[in-house]
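Table S2 (continued). Query chain:
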Amino acid sequence: MRSVTATVKTVFAATAVLLALAMAGASQDAAAQTGDPLQVILTLKNVEVNSQGQEALTEATRVKPGDLVEYRAVYTNSGKVPMRQLTATLPIPEGLDYVANSARPAGALASADGKEFAPEPLKRTVEKDGKSVTEIIPASEYRFLRWEVKAIDPGKDFAARARAKVSQATAQPAPQQAEGAR
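Corresponding output:
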């Protein structure tokens, strides 16, 4: 099974820089082309609600704590043969608080540590008063979402998205647009 998780480190670093730029009101593209037929593009959009309650996605040229954003990764097969059995991972950088159950398409697995993935809600065992207790991990602690993708045909893509709030204590995260490849 091919994993695009290797992209995460490069994209994650670009994401932190791009959110910092977006928070400062700057606009910049980051591209990291490696010749791999699997291309990954991350984008960040502000989610705005009008007076009738209708949502619109706008370019996130500037974000501030408390803003609701949609964070998206599009995995495109620019090769000539189908890519099969992919694991697509959407990092949720520090500074973004994932909104529970907002991952699309359905079926995403979540992780707080990048090692263990499970369906939402995530749970952990903690010691309280000398007893092991299972508690639900707050969605704001989720750092990765993952989808198992059966195939991406040549020229086609797989898009994953999730919503998050920009943290009140943020000094970095999420991209305006970042490009990277495996």
